Amino acid sequence: MSTAAATAAAACIHCGADLPAGAERFCCPGCAGAWALINELGLGQYYARRTAAAPRPVAESAPDPSAFVRIESDGTAALDLLVDGLSCAACVWLIETALKRDPEVVAARVNLGSRRLRLRWKGAQAAAGRLVEAVQRLGYRVVPFDPSALVSLAERRERQLLRALAVAGFAAGNIMLLSVAVWAGLAEDMGSATRDLLHWISALIALPAIAVAGMPFFESAAAALRARRTNMDVPISIGVVLAAAMSLFETINSGPHAYFDSAVTLLFFLLVGRYLDHRARGRARSAAENLVALSAAPATLVEPGGRTVRVRPTELAIGSTILVAPGERIAADGRIVAGRSELDRSLVDGETTPAPAGVGDLVYAGMLNLAAPLRIEVTATGEATFLAEIVRLMEAAEQGRARFVVLADRVARRYAPAVHTLALFTFLGWVGLGGAPWQAALMNAVAVLIITCPCALGLAVPAVQVIASGRLMKRGILLKSATALERLASVDTVVFDKTGTLTLGAPELDPADAEPDALRLASSLAASSRHPLARAIRAAAPDVPAAEGVEEHPGEGLSCGEIRIGSRRFCGVATEDETTGPELWLARPGAAPHRFRFSDALRPDAAATVAALKREGKRVLLLSGDRPAAVAAVAAALGIDEWRAGVSPAEKAATVAALPGNVLMVGDGLNDAPALAGAAVSMSPATAADVSRTAADVVFQRDSLAAVTETLAVARGAERLVRQNIGFAILYNVLAVPLAVAGLVTPLLAAVAMSSSSLVVIGNAFRLRGMK
Known about the structure:
By secondary structure, this protein is an alpha+beta fold. It contains 28 helices and 27 strands. Helix 9 (233-252) packs antiparallel against helix 10 and helix 14 packs antiparallel against helix 17.
């Protein structure tokens, strides 16, 4: 076996890891399966070209993508794809626009951070093939979304850039030495034969180096041109090729000027910028992409006979049992059936303190097992897990179409035609009006092509959104809405609900009111509600069978025939007293109404949160459906001057809608849903009713209300940084473009300036991480 072949065979041809003894091509079954899937989808050559592996298997025919389609609850078909070749906001706009032209497409959203394309359409599953082909015709490569492929793709991209950078750096250093000799010889009357020899040696070094080191730019530009479009790599490729071609023309014709040193050094600086940009984007990697990477780790499946086998999370079935060793992340949602340990739940609620977990406890994909082995019965896998839901929320927030994003997208998609036209006019102007030699005019045009890159503007908003979403997610705060940050930044009024929002929403029934017959009847109705008081009733008598035919009346209570449980008014109790705590009344035929009293503690930092909001100059209100005495007591304890009690859901929504300014509504109950939907922006705790969490723009996981002030502070900081980034991007182009057109910027300086502008924008966005 040759040395090259032996080297290639020593590593897995999918992930590059060292091969175990006896293995020939793959390090594990997961890599073998992933390789087979990628080859079936027509990307075998793409990956094999980057791994220098054994002969590439050729896919005879790509399978129908409809095999990966799932049907959503509303009847629409959905498909998640991993898109390779995304480089900027213009790529996102192009793919989304092309897909939305299809009349059957309901939604097509691309996340630049995780490179995931989410497709939803009405119609048959077979339409997936047509939609996938529409993306491929644009020059992009797509495969069904796979977290392991996402991580592998980023690593391969980084290795490719490093190899290209090494080649360009080696060639630039050697050609520069030859160029110094030519420059020195010109001052000493060097003969033309010697000069031509040095130029030819430079050409022999430069041309292969440009072909290899320029591949990241050339491949992207070629794919775009084949699809009859342009991207940011097209003008870069044109500039590099023009500089090299002009130098070769001069060398062939024994001209005095060759620019091989400029062409290769230009490529070197472009690659330095591209590599640093890739690393910076990796550090600012989308929170969604980081979460997706968690789901790529294999799971240990316990087979019926007790044998264990390592499988991919997507291969787990509901009802199967997995073994989670200490130090491993849980691969699927489930319930502990054996063992006791401590879990890092920070992914779920942002709380870093380990939490004990034992038999019967629910656990979620992504949690980290810290202490002892656990056996878990799987209850949800894949897109049905809690982790997948978080990913969907994070991607929706990160790829938002706020007004600044719309501005950047418009500029990005008009960039290429404008740059090409400007470069052409620069060349013609210097030749026709300036009387400059065509070589110098061409170099000025190359500088214009390079310096007018829209990367800084394209990254101005997404970089900040990604870092803001990631910072909040680490604190257990999930942004659901694409434009939530923008709306939160301008909030001047905050409206709170009481029960479950300002209080913990975990009331306890007063034992003195637990009359057995009344409690059993109330518990049978309460089983049909998620209201905190209903749950407290149910907790006091959990074994009572649930009543049938129970109807919930938001803001009032529950009814089952003539039996009612709820507020005084709902149950027909006319008297009032000075009781300040929460209460429910039970009304039943043939018996006097029975009262259940509860104690519900305030959230520990509720008073501090209200005080902080008031210090910031925000108007704070309390709206509750509870009795005036109870609402007044909470308002007094928290220092809230404006409050209203006994409001119905419709009255609460109307009050919020009538408030001037930008209103943030914070609520958790079913009765809060209309107000949450009608407010300018809304927040809800994770313990809220499903409809309230759905209506809210932001969901926070912890018991702490500090999530409100934290979210508002991050939103204000994000808007400030977005404005700074956009201002810098505009200023950069206003100053740099005229200098390049005027011939005051060489292609080398243009490459440095273009790369630096992107790094400045990303670096400025990182300031949000350290903001107090």
